[in-house]
């Protein structure tokens, strides 16, 4: 399950509709609307949650990844310490980041790429990623999310 900042995870690509996601990925283990009014499809076997944002016409705009099978640029981030993953992300993304530290738990976000890593005791716990935005806060959807779902996931 390849994580590709700016595009999505595996066959789940930013900009997809719920119908497209169901067609490509299949039926979720859970399907609910959260407190923000966003529809969430939960796939337990993949360790992934897809959020279809009401603010953006119900299109896929945010992904939560907890799956131990996930890869990011050929590395399994869940088998790495955050102190090992952070320099890799810094080098690949080459952008500023924001870090929130709560003692043993922290969250680090590369805001231009909308990639957030939640970590505790130097272990990666969860990776969240969202669609990127232009300078006027318009989502930068991949041109054809369903077609790109068949890509190699390198995102380069």
Description:
The protein has 156 residues and is of the alpha+beta class. The protein is built from three helices and eleven strands. The chain has one domain (3-148). Helices cover 15% and strands 33% of the residues. The strands form two sheets. It has an eight-stranded antiparallel β-sheet with strand order 4-5-6-7-11-10-9-8, with helices on one face. A hairpin with a 5-residue loop joins strand 4 and strand 5. It is globular. Residues 135-156 are annotated as: Disordered.
The biggest sheet amounts to: 8 strands, antiparallel
Q: Please report the distance between the alpha carbons of the first and last residues.
A: 17 Å
Would you count the extended β strands for me? 11
Helix content: 10-25%
Mean pLDDT: 91
Order of helices and strands: EEEHEEEEHEEEEH
Backbone CA Rg: 15 Å
Estimate the strand proportion: 25-35%
Shape: globular
**Regions with little confidence, pLDDT below 50 for 5+ residues:** 145-156
Number of domains: 1
Q: If helices are DSSP runs of H or I spanning 4 or more residues, what is the number of helices?
A: 3
Strand order of the largest sheet: 4-5-6-7-11-10-9-8
Structural class of the secondary elements? alpha+beta
Describe the structure in brief.
By secondary structure, the protein is an alpha+beta fold.
């Amino acid at each position: 399950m390849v994580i590709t900042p700016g595009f999505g995870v595996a066959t789940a690509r930013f900009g997809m509709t719920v119908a497209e996601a169901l067609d490509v990925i299949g039926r979720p283990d859970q399907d609910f609307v959260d407190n923000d009014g966003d529809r969430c499809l939960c796939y337990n076997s993949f360790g992934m949650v897809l959020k279809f944002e009401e603010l953006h016409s119900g299109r896929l705009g945010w992904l939560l990844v907890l799956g131990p099978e996930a890869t990011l640029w050929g590395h399994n981030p869940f088998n790495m310490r955050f102190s090992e993953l952070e320099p890799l992300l810094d080098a690949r993304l080459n952008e500023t980041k924001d870090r929130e530290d709560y003692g043993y738990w922290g969250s680090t976000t590369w805001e231009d790429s909308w990639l957030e890593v939640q970590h505790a005791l130097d272990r990666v716990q969860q990776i969240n990623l969202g669609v990127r935005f232009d300078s006027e806060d318009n989502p930068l959807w991949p041109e054809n999310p369903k077609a790109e779902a068949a890509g190699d996931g390198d995102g380069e």
